[in-house]
Amino acid sequence: MERSLMKGNEALAEAAMRAGCKCFFGYPITPQTEISAYLAKKMAANGGLFLQAESEVAAINMVLGAASTGVRVMTSSSSPGISLKSEGISYIAGSDLPCVIINVQRGGPGLGGIQPSQADYWQATKGLGHGDFHVLVYAPASVQEMVDVVVKAFDKADEYRMPAMILADGILGQMMEPVTFPEIEAKNGDKPWAADGHKNKREHNIINSLYLQPDVLEKSVVDRYEKYKKIEETEADAESYLCEDAEIVVCAFGATARVAKSTVNQAREKGIKAGLFRPKTVWPFPAKQLQEASKNAKTLLSVEMSMGQMIDDIKLAINCSKPVEFFGRTGGVIPKPTEILDEIVRLGGAK
Amino acid sequence: MKKVTIITGHYGSGKTNICANLAMELAKNGEKVTVVDLDIVNPYFRTADFSDLFKDNNITLVSSIYANSNLDIPAISFDVERLCREDGYVIIDVGGDDAGATALGRYKAVFEELYEENKIDMLYVINCCRYLTRTPKEALELMYEIEYTARFKHTGIINNSNLGNETTLETAVSSIEFEKAVSGEAKLPVLFTSVCKGCDIPEIDGVNFREVDVFVKPLWEL
């Protein structure tokens, strides 16, 4: 199959179209703008709809509307824009609707900056909006994975009738790498619940997140949590690299995992038994995979482009059985392989 | 090389790396070189990333004071016209596509003047591995779009076909057909065809291979 050189944002947009995404609603923000720009150029010719909404709030509510009719729909933004969308995301989760949400993270809090960051980990995995709910969160680490993961996100969102997020960052969105598009089947799945016209042949389908009776609302939430339990068992995914004999297991996701992999190779050259554990989903967090990957480890080291938002998930995954250290840069600063190596050595990795 | 060289192309064609190579070669020959980062589009991955390399090689880098900062605005905080009239070589790294070439439009008068004196080249960098410029037709369409917003016509082509870190000699050799089609249709000469450093360059009639250093590296290879 043909190799093409593509930006992460472009590859993601192209893959979404190929996966059967028929509607895109968004509002420009660096560093994700190429997703909108690409779809603005190509969506109509592919029989889809591209619309630049008047705001992020408008865009996410358009997603809610389109998803209600059963079509595959996507929106994308970067950190501050995702905060604006959070009310709508909660409504979509509460209405059991599938959609794909892209966050190409930048530095925060507030307006922050336009350089890469991973400081929306808590937001994505713990609190993407009000109420009891989760979204599936995928964390790609290459331009090729941007393609693979968007296809999976659409499939899984449909399968579980819930929003799926791709938690990327400014590096992944902006960098170029060779990519191959696999055979992608443009699906839409069977959606008997969709409000797409009953034609007097069936009962009305009603899409709603408002409940007048507390006990009915409670049941809807409890049922959703049954689904989450199943997802936690089946959908958690991770990559382990040189973890088998590793005494120090570096945990990193997204672009940071690329830097960390480089560090692990450098550490091995120095005779340090280092390995890399890379969550490919961050909700559900791959706890069982981490237990296995770190079984021979003395120390775990979380490396993030934030002040350390994944540390708690790592500690929970291993029941606090081993020390979990942290190294991070934030505000748009990218950790260097050598800085991480220095930290490994400082933690006693050289012994 | 002429006094002023403008480098245009699609995002990801490798414009910035070509600029760095051209500048390094001139500097090695003891020439005075100024590289102008005229990218008003992309706040990520730009010539300004090479400030250390340029400093070590006595190459002057002129870029927006906002390059690589958090201020995402299309500002040009320097005088391109004055630079073009001063001593020494000037290499202008333009932002991607016609959007990036917009920055050239306002210098039409000075570029035309230099053109009359045979002192300027505008070179279009092509990469047939790059999405949306894979066919000669797509590459030509973009070339004319750039000329339209730049208000200036290209004088030559650089074939920089590459697949990032997967580039091999085969990448260059298999792009010759594409290069000839673009060059023939545009009626513009191909200055050179990029190949990686140290590869066994074949003799192909009418093709001028040139070894190119890769200065643009992913963060994890630094």
What is the structure about, briefly put?
The complex is a heterodimer of chains A (351) and B (222). Chain A is of the alpha/beta class and 351 residues long. Chain A has helices at residues 8-18, 33-42, 56-68, 79-94, 121-126, 143-160, 170-174, 214-234, 254-269, 287-293, 311-317, 337-349, and strands at 4-7, 23-26, 49-52, 73-77, 99-105, 136-138, 163-169, 176-179, 238-241, 248-251, 274-279, 281-283, 299-304, 324-328.
Question: Can you put this structure into words, describing what you see?
Answer:
The complex is a heterodimer of chains A (351) and B (222). Chain A has 351 residues and is of the alpha/beta class. Chain A is 41% helix and 19% strand. Chain A has 12 helices and 14 strands. In chain A, the strands form 3 sheets. A 7-stranded mixed beta sheet of chain A has the order 3-2-4-5-7-6-12, sandwiched between helices. Chain A has a 5-stranded mixed beta sheet with strand order 9-11-10-13-14, with helices on both faces. In chain A, strands 1-8 form a two-stranded antiparallel ribbon. In chain A, β6, α6 and β7 form a beta-alpha-beta unit. The longest helix of chain A has 21 residues. The two termini of chain B are 31 Å apart. Chain B is 32% helix and 20% strand. Chain B is of the alpha/beta class. The longest helix of chain B has 15 residues. An 8-stranded parallel beta sheet of chain B has the order 3-2-4-1-5-6-7-8, with helices on both faces. Chain B has one domain: Rossmann fold (3-Layer(aba) Sandwich), CATH 3.40.50.300. Chains A and B meet through β1, α7, β8 and α9 of A and loops of B.
